[in-house]
Amino acid sequence: MPYAYDRDNIFARILRGEISCTRILETEHSLAFRDIRPQAPEHVLVIPKGPYVTFDHFTAAASDAEIADFARAIGRVCAMQGLAPGAAGGGYRLIANAGEAGIQEVQHLHVHVLGGRVLGRMLPYAG
Ligand code: DGP
Q: Are 47 and 11 in contact (CB under 8 A)?
């Protein structure tokens, strides 16, 4: 059962209001809040409100309305946090970790929006 969803994962509890978070944006199908362990000056997590574990699960099972809402929420967070690339620099990185190889800690789909500094090359790889 690759997509078994744990209803007690931390982000499910944030969605139910059982754990607090610093909210950035809420839409009909998505929520954005600050990462508790920021890796950059701007580090926001965007999650769908529905019970999806990974990006592939979400795109296979969510409605078009949820997918559009989620994609737009991510774009809005980038713009709201002043990360859209422009003459003054800017720019951001989106990361969605999944499963063991992706080292996914929280088993509810989330996209990390990172920015506010030069983020370095994507990944070290020794080949
Ligand atoms: P990942 O490895 O992609 O599953 O990252 C999970 C992220 O979730 C990690 O950067 C820390 C963040 N996180 C974990 N617990 C909490 C929490 O209770 N609140 C918030 N805001 N972020 C959390």
A: yes
